[in-house]
Automatic annotation (TrEMBL):
It comes from Desulfosoma caldarium. This is Coenzyme F420 hydrogenase subunit delta. GO terms for molecular function: aspartic-type endopeptidase activity; enzyme activator activity. The keyword Cell inner membrane does not apply. Gene3D superfamilies: HybD-like. It holds the Pfam family HycI. Signal peptide: none annotated. SUPFAM superfamilies: HybD-like (SSF53163). GO terms for biological process: protein processing. The keyword Amino-acid biosynthesis does not apply. Keywords: Aspartyl protease, Hydrolase, Protease. Belongs to the peptidase A31 family.
Length: 170
């Protein structure tokens, strides 16, 4: 079974969002790769490098009759008052419609789709964000030093979160 089909059957899904060709915007895919290849990811979890196709995957999840219990989005954001490389949980309710323009979320999945999954689909949605230090306007692959240092910490945080989303044993 490939990761795309597991997206609909796994109890927990991690989507690494962003574009590795644009500096710190590649944080989500980098974390997804580290989690899938270097960490002991639980069997009930599906990790997908969504890249810039996260909105398409989320739309498919919204339409699917089968949904995960939990969905973790990993992405880089630029917000005032945060330090580059700082990791934090960004609640959906913390992204008010009037304030979305305050975020420079490169390729960030549609907040409306995330809200629909949470409210209508019963999916626990959580966004693990890193404060980007550098998202260029031109092709420049590679994470900044501060964001690269956050990758192993993000993996640890996600492993703990995934452990709490284990399916109940019958």
């Amino acid at each position: 079974m490939n990761e795309r089909s597991r997206l609909f059957s796994a109890a927990a899904v991690v989507l690494g969002c962003g574009n590795t060709l644009f500096g710190d915007d590649g944080f989500g895919p980098t974390v997804a790769e580290a989690l899938a290849t270097h960490a002991l990811c639980p069997a009930h979890a599906c990790v997908v490098d969504a890249g810039t196709a996260a909105a398409d995957l989320l739309f498919d999840l919204v339409l699917s009759p089968q949904k995960p219990k939990a969905l973790f989005i990993v992405d880089a954001v630029q917000m005032s008052g945060r330090n580059p490389g700082e990791l934090f949980w960004l609640a959906l309710e913390d992204i008010p419609a009037a304030k979305r323009a305050d975020f420079l979320m490169h390729q960030f999945p549609s907040a409306d789709l995330l809200r629909e999954l949470a409210q209508e689909g019963g999916v626990k949605v959580a966004v693990l964000a890193v404060q980007a230090g550098w998202i260029p306007n031109h092709v420049a692959p590679g994470l900044s030093e501060s964001v690269a240092r956050a990758v192993p910490h993000a993996v640890e945080i996600l492993l703990k979160a995934l452990a709490s989303e284990r399916p109940a044993v019958a």
